[in-house]
């Protein structure tokens, strides 16, 4: 398939945000005007580039710098970008269009096609961000910065709102809901793990990726509870370690004791705290083999599945529950107990109150209305 050359394409307006950063070149020269399949391979390799060992050469130092730059994006973001670039390249291949460098009119057509396939507006926006990032690391002008690309996406948002497509929020796993879930969680090995995971996630207002990444070495037992050191947290852009206090509880919902019970039952003294559990395949007859605890950390998707499965077992709709339900539940419970917003913002590790508000699940809007009894 023949692709138009870069010289034959109109020069898109450069993204002004890129002017603040040096051009980033991925593994090997960017495959401009190459077949979409080649660009997909190049992009996947670029976003997963290993940091090379120093050998004293400038070339290796530059390659290391580029690999470090890749890690400025969270793993989930890189995963979403890879999916977006694959979808973009496949669409361009199907229609005989160039995908690197791209034309703005092709980008908006692709975004409209994705929306037409039933993609959520947030997914379309991620696709746009992926195309932008593809061009950025290839050192090409960024077509997504053109005005009519932004207008197209804005129109999609407005159309979605007109159609009643409001942004969906997962149910907040408040204290009462968490108590119901744990009352139906057994004390077997998987149950002890999941109890510790749910209570630690709630008490620390942790995201699913933060929960999945907890290592025993991140936990320090103190007189008043556990001190959890998060090497990575979404709210900490500078990459500094974030400390989260996990206090002792006075009921059966104590997160510290739940963690200790899980560690003792699984014999975990170092490494990943939350691990996969499976039952080995045994003989057709005879006693069932004991569960085996792995060594590697579970992934964030497994955290979400555990929350859904335990909620479903307690009678809640799993479609309304996700990994973020623990964080939302912790902050909403704090709000219901009259905790000051400043403390909630600190617990949630949010940079602004606007972001905090997105996590709160408000009750009856008539309760404590500012003008109740005034008019």
Commentary on this structure:
It is a single chain. By secondary structure, the protein is mainly alpha-helical. The protein has two domains: 6-162, DNA polymerase, domain 1; 175-359, Orthogonal Bundle (hpI Integrase, Chain A), CATH 1.10.443.10. The chain has helices at residues 36-47, 58-70, 75-95, 104-116, 121-138, 147-162, 175-183, 189-203, 208-212, 255-266, 300-313, 324-336, 341-348, 353-359, and strands spanning 219-222, 225-230, 242-247, 275-278, 292-297. A three-stranded antiparallel beta sheet has the order 1-2-3, with no helix packed on it. A two-stranded antiparallel ribbon has the order 4-5. The longest helix has 21 residues, at 75-95.
Largest sheet: 3 strands, antiparallel
Unreliable spans: 1-26
CATH architecture of the largest domain: Orthogonal Bundle
Query: So what's the overall shape?
Result: globular
Overall mean confidence score, pLDDT? 83
Q: How many whole angstroms does the radius of gyration measure?
A: 24 Å
Helical stretch count? 14
**What fold name stands as the CATH topology of the largest domain?**
hpI Integrase, Chain A
């Amino acid at each position: 398939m023949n692709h138009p050359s870069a010289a034959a394409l109109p020069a898109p307006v450069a993204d002004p945000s890129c002017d603040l950063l040096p051009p980033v070149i991925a593994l090997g020269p960017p495959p401009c005007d190459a077949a979409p399949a080649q660009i997909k391979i190049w992009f996947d390799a670029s976003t997963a580039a290993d940091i090379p060992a120093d050998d004293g050469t400038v070339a290796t130092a530059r390659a290391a710098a580029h690999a470090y730059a890749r890690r400025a994006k969270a793993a989930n973001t890189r995963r979403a970008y890879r999916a977006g670039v694959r979808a973009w390249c496949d669409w361009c291949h199907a229609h005989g269009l160039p995908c690197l460098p791209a034309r703005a009119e092709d980008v908006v057509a692709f975004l409209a096609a994705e929306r037409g396939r039933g993609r959520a507006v947030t997914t379309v926006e991620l696709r746009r961000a992926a195309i932008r990032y593809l061009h950025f690391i290839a050192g090409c002008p960024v077509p997504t910065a053109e005005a009519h690309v932004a207008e197209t996406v804005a129109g999609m948002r407005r159309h979605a709102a007109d159609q009643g497509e409001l942004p969906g929020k997962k149910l907040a796993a408040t204290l009462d809901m968490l108590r119901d879930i744990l009352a139906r969680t057994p004390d077997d090995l998987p149950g002890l793990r999941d109890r510790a995971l749910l209570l630690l996630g709630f008490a620390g207002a942790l995201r699913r990726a933060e929960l999945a990444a907890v290592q025993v070495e991140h936990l320090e037992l103190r007189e008043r509870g556990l001190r959890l050191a998060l090497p990575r947290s979404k709210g900490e852009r500078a990459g500094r370690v974030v400390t989260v206090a996990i206090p002792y509880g006075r009921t059966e919902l104590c997160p510290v004791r739940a963690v200790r019970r899980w560690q003792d039952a699984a014999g975990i003294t170092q490494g990943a705290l939350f691990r996969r559990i499976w039952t080995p395949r045994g003989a057709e007859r005879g006693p069932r083999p004991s569960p085996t605890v792995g060594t590697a950390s579970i992934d964030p998707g497994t955290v979400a599945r555990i929350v859904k499965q335990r909620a479903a077992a307690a009678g809640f709709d799993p479609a309304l529950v996700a990994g973020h339900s623990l964080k939302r539940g912790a902050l909403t419970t704090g709000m219901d107990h009259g905790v000051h917003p400043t403390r909630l913002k600190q617990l949630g590790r949010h940079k602004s109150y606007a972001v905090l508000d997105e996590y709160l699940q408000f009750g009856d809007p008539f309760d404590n209305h500012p003008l109740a009894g005034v008019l």
